[in-house]
Amino acid sequence: MAFSFDTKHIFVGGKWRAGESGRLIDLINPSTGEVLAQIAKGSALDIDAAVNAAQASLDGEWGEMTALERGRILRKMSDLTLERSKELAKMEALDVGKPFGQALTDAIAMARYFEFYAGACDKIHGSTIPFMNGFTVLTMREPHGVTGHIIPWNYPMQINGRSIGGALAMGNAAVLKPAEEACLTALALGEIASDAGLPAGALNIVPGIGAEAGAALSAHKGVNHISFTGSKAVGALIQKSAGEHVAPVTLELGGKSPQIVFEDADIDAAIPFLVNAGIQNAGQTCSASSRILVQRSIYDKVVKAMSERYEALIVGPALDDLNVGPMISARQKQIVEEFLQLAQADGLEIVARGKMADKLPDGGHYVLPTLFGNVPADHSLAQDEIFGPVQVVIAFEDEADALKIANGTSYGLVAGVWTKDGSRQMRMAKKLHVGQVFINNYGAGGGVELPFGGVKGSGHGREKGFEALYSFSVTKTIAIKHG
Length: 483
Ligand code: ADP
Description:
Elements: E1 9-12, E2 15-18, E3 24-28, E4 35-40, H1 44-59, H2 61-64, H3 67-83, H4 85-96, H5 100-120, E5 128-129, E6 135-143, E7 146-150, H6 156-169, E8 173-177, H7 184-195, E9 203-205, H8 210-219, E10 225-229, H9 232-244, E11 249-252, E12 258-261, H10 267-279, E13 291-295, H11 299-311, E14 314-315, H12 330-345, E15 349-353, E16 355-356, E17 370-373, H13 380-383, E18 390-396, H14 399-406, E19 414-418, H15 422-431, E20 436-439, E21 459-460, H16 468-471, E22 473-481
Parallel strand pairs: 7-8, 7-10, 8-9, 10-11, 12-13, 12-19, 13-18, 14-16, 17-18, 19-20
Antiparallel strand pairs: 1-2, 3-4, 5-6, 6-22, 11-21, 15-17
Helix pairs in contact: 1-8, 3-5, 3-7, 4-5, 5-6, 10-11
The chain binds adenosine-5'-diphosphate.
């Protein structure tokens, strides 16, 4: 069944309608530079209406539902997402610019998040606590109430799946502010939720620009928890704004994640992960592995094998489903190009690049994937999040050196370690200052079940997995004196 929502509408209280101001934003197709659709430019008034609708659902049908009933609705949302996965993937490919196959993976992942959280709803328990004689003390997990979700443009389906799935599982009512650059599948979620029988107001969707609709959401006193994925600068603003009314925040803010290859590693197994983790979604991935640390004795061998893969990478329009799509926007393309110019000015060594497809549309935001070798660990290209298909290779001497370089940025999201030495695997895993460590793999295929989030500048709090349900709920302690 095809989607029928109007892209210019907001979804509030179970109804589709124009934003109060009637203003619109053009969504640009990154593969062509042409206007793909128009979306509402939501205002503070629209956000206020959404928060009120969310609160009303908590005071009404949604708030009355049992965990089992919530789980059944999430399960239905999962089934509907899977049924419509190809249509969703096409929407996402056109909107974000990601190759169709990668967008399809994202649609399947969104379905999987809803499935996972559907099953988890009625399996999170409180406890009883031994206490003074004459007392019984118990704890229960309760929803925060209204949760705000401020979402970026790079993986809308995956991030909506994990964030909305977790929040609804715990019985919160959500207000979703998708990114102004890519928002179609977020709107489609409104239709999926309605069709699955989610009560009106349990999920509200208000597109708009960050400084207006986003800022209004994080500042709204009726919002009891904010979940944000995006840049470090905006995350800091959101934390401050939510702090004004003491609302907790979960921040997932990107990284400069390393993969560390030791001389005893299975290099053939590592190479596809080393490259794919850098160029997937054109490098516009929070957990992209943008730094490859290689032990000096195998440096030439690894760089040669990575180069061969780089030279086979083809960049082109999303629906052609090549290896790499365009950048999301002209602005993002410019940011990446500025890094490339800096690298050139500083004489960094380009060891390999991909190729552009023949006959690219003129207005697309294409950038060639680029691999730099022998990059000093303190150079901007090895320290700052680029958010483009650019990786740096850095040589290291030994375990201590690898750790120093790996931990030596302001971020701490993910790390990969390639070694057959079991003792070294554990030493590295314990000493890497990050939220996730992958040994002899990277990303574990997305890992819906695996808690995800960072330390340091990569943020705090965890999404994904069962653990996210603790972020999306609060403990209430009940002490009963019965004598
Ligand atoms: P990126 O730099 O990757 O575009 P951002 O951090 O700017 O990521 O944006 C991520 C999300 O945060 C988007 O939905 C955006 O609209 C929103 N946003 C941007 N600025 C603000 C702000 N000041 N307050 C709240 N949300 C914002």
